[in-house]
Amino acid sequence: MIELRDVTKTFPQGKGEGGGLRAVDHVSLHVPRGSVYGIVGHSGAGKSTLLRLINHLEEPTSGSVLVGGADLGALGERGRRQVRQSIGMVFQQFNLFRSRTVLGNVAYPLKVAGASRAEARERAAEVLRFVGLDGHARRYPEQLSGGQRQRVGIARALATSPGVLLCDEATSALDPQTTHEVLALLERVNRELGITIVLITHEMDVVRSLCDRVAVMADGKVVESGGVYEVFSRPQHPTTEAFVRSALHDRPDGPALERLRARHGGRLVTVPVTGDAAGGHELSRLLREHAVDFTVAHAGVGEVQNRPLGSVTLELRGAEADIDAVVARLGGLEKAGAR
Ligand SMILES: Nc1ncnc2c1ncn2[C@@H]1O[C@H](COP(=O)(O)OP(=O)(O)OP(=O)(O)O)[C@@H](O)[C@H]1O
Ligand SMILES: [Mg+2]
């Protein structure tokens, strides 16, 4: 649905000559039709620039951007406008017109696209029903809560029936409960309307609850990408690792680990838990074989894409030699606190 081929975007930096700032650095990625694709990265990583390249709010310095098979760079102004109309965009700060009603805001892109007043109002009312705001059509944005404003933002983006929805930190200004509601709405947009979603966030929890695939950006580059479960269970890049830990909260470290050590006199080991049942059987067999007993010191196991993922930290008790043997056999499994 969306394909970036070796895309670079350099901004002239202003101060000093030469170089310029490479906000997006040789990025290639493919967003399959119907998927929810997350892009995470720290502030300044180039996420918003990447998103703006997809709907051609920014021109790539080099490389090409294809949406629905059409190469935006090769299209004329008219063709580009058409492609842009097939892409909806949702912003962190909602970007609604304060002087227009909810209905007026949602009808606006339809009018721009040439719909009659009656058509625009009818379609706007329909999308407002979809986002659950049909009772609020005559209100003004400032009479709404943040979550309701964002639903208006989503309704406006959906008005022209786009095939793609781009969301730039759509939930970053919202509290956790409201975030949850907006994510549930985006999930319906994807599932019921079949719209492909590209979503930028700095919260891995958002990726975990909504996305199929994820790309991690650092310094303008995509440093890692893949299926959400795969990336969560086997992060390769340090940036990814840090993001994954922040969402899984699965292993104690720092002061929490010190407290565990104070509470538990025995040997602590942290064992990953995945959807792989064989791993669990292997562990219990190993403990039985060596007559090593255990207590759960810390458990951080949750679900990612409906599959278990996380780790448990166990205190092992038994003869030293037996514990040594178990720890040796655990092999690739890490000791508590190891990262
Ligand atoms: N129009 C512009 N002109 C010059 N530099 C820009 C422009 N837009 C972005 N940049 C720079 O490009 C880099 C990437 O910015 P971008 O907004 O894409 O990051 P981001 O990952 O979205 O960050 P955040 O999480 O803070 O929104 C930053 O260093 C930024 O200052
Ligand atoms: Mg940004």
UniProtKB/TrEMBL annotation:
Keyword Transport carried by entry: yes
GO terms, molecular function: ATP binding
SUPFAM superfamilies: ACT-like, P-loop containing nucleoside triphosphate hydrolases
Keywords: Amino-acid transport, ATP-binding, Cell membrane, Membrane, Nucleotide-binding, Translocase, Transport
Pfam families: ABC_tran, NIL
InterPro entries: AAA+_ATPase, ABC_transporter-like_ATP-bd, ABC_transporter-like_CS, ACT-like_dom_sf, MetN_ABC, MetN_ABC_transporter-like, NIL_domain, P-loop_NTPase
Domain ABC transporter intervals: 2-244
Protein's recorded name: Methionine import ATP-binding protein MetN
Lineage: Bacteria, Bacillati, Actinomycetota, Actinomycetes, Kitasatosporales
Gene: metN
